[in-house]
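Summarise this fold before class:
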Amino acid sequence: MLCCPVLALAQDAGPFEGRVWVVDQRAANADDRGPGNQNQPFRTIQRGAEMAQPGDTVLVREGIYRERVAPPRGGEPGHPIVYRAEPGKNVIIRGSDVWSPAWERDGNLYCAVPDESLFTDDVYVDDKNPFLVEMSSTPFGRDGLREVERGFVEGEQYERIVFSLGQVYVNGRIYRQVPLKHEAEEEAGTWWVDRSTGRICIHFAGNPAERTVEICTRRRVFAPHRRGLGHIHVIGFVMEHCGNNYPTNFWDAKNPQWQQAGTLGTRSGHHWRIEGNVFRFGMVGIDVGYEALSGQNRGDLERGDNGRNEAGGMFHEIVNNHIIDNFGPGTAGMDARGVQFVGNVIERNNLYAFKGMKRFETGGIKLHRPHGSRFESNLFRDNDCGGLWLDQGAGNDTVIERNVFIRNQNG
């Protein structure tokens, strides 16, 4: 587990203001039907979210929580709703579940189809199962079907190259997806999915019975369903294993499923404080601006009428976080005005090596026209992309000062 000293800094802030809802899934008497107090806590963070009102705190005790947290409401000016990890403890929210199927041997591969009941985050315009959703652009420096469709390459050898949003972790190590079955057969530590059947085939380096397998089952980790919520604080968590998509042509109304969607998603919200967290092993770490264009008229990656930001600018505070080891950009967002990025560590992003045409949305911090924002005292290190990329310009009255850039691809 990553040791992250910024967590202690973040969690020392301020006393609790309103009611404190306690979550502790490890407690023997934890029950979402109970009072959610210190003596009888809730089992899930989502239950705390459902109960919290402006000024309240959802205090989450140590453990690994496998759920999507979707706050149903925001706070009010001076009375935020605070989601706070237990100080000094590892509080992890994962978009994955442990998977122990009845394996079928297929040469060097062990294969199985995950049960549909694992995929509970069923709100998307395409599919709830990340393994059945195609990646919007081809990673790892390759060209594939997406690039054929866009006229960049042609030939049958490219048409067979398709990647999904799924992820496989074995004993905590991420296995690498390959688009062709024979590639998985030839290399240990890889996996392949037959998207026509949902069958996942893994090339283990040993006996799968002796290993813990986790597969990505959710496409967001912390994000409201309703867009435009404000005054939410998120402090001290580790969020990881998210099956979100690369934001190719995020402005395209024909493909709202490609919008900018982070492991933590503000969903076009405003006045969030995101402090002392770790965001890793998702396609995008945080979305802090509009998911598409600021007009919010390009549809939604989730089904239904989920509202919009009526407050205008974003005005988020992103302080003392580790935004690391994401598959694509560390952050994303259009017209994220008045955002403060201070004291963050942004490193080793673009693990999937998105390179070439229509892989332009990648940076340690990648935002479009963040008018009136501040980027101060951040460390950008070893990103396989630009460290700080403010696309279409930095906007008016934006300040960039006292940042450190080490061994980024550019920028």
Q: What stands out?
A: The chain has a mean pLDDT of 95. The chain is about 5% helix and 25% strand.
